[in-house]
Design a protein that fits this description.
The chain is of the alpha/beta class. The protein is built from four helices and five strands; from the N terminus they run βββαβααβα. It comes from Parageobacillus thermoglucosidasius (Geobacillus thermoglucosidasius).
């Protein structure tokens, strides 16, 4: 084939289109103020919050909990059948009924939908709480707070 100058014609591989995530309105995204520094000197300095799903008798329940990093104590929680803004709002309001806070409280969360909402931002502003968020797709920040 070489002597005759013949070449095989292979099929051209189709290029896969590059997947580009479209910029959408993601709500409020806050800076990661903790950066895995979970050291504290007093109560109500740094709180972390998260929601987890629990299956009970073929039913899904969602538990929203807020933990004080200083002593790893749960300061507020709520249980609901829906994972929504109301659930995380209620857990924060419950925590605020129990604990007196000052202006230097940092509340660290993941980038879940309820924590990016306008209602959550209003709560942060109303109670002078400084919000902080983990980087996208990095839930380890809240996990490491328990270990320290």
């Amino acid at each position: 084939m070489r002597k005759l100058g013949l070449k095989c014609q292979s099929r051209l591989k189709r290029k896969q289109p590059v997947k580009v995530k479209k910029a959408t309105s993601a709500g409020y995204i806050y800076e990661n103020l903790l950066k895995r520094d979970f050291s504290t000197t007093r109560l109500n300095e740094k709180w972390v919050a998260d929601v987890t799903e629990i299956a009970v008798d073929d039913e899904k329940l969602f538990v929203s909990a807020i933990m004080d990093v200083h002593n790893n104590g749960i300061v507020g929680y709520q249980i609901s059948q829906t994972h929504d803004v109301q659930l995380v709002e209620d857990s924060l309001l419950y925590a605020l009924e129990i604990r007196k806070i000052d202006d230097s409280l940092i509340l660290h969360t993941d980038q879940g939908m309820p924590y990016r909402s306008t209602r959550w931002k209003t709560l942060m502003d109303t109670f002078s709480i400084t919000p902080s968020m983990s980087r996208k797709a990095n839930a380890l920040d809240n996990y490491f707070s328990i270990l320290t």
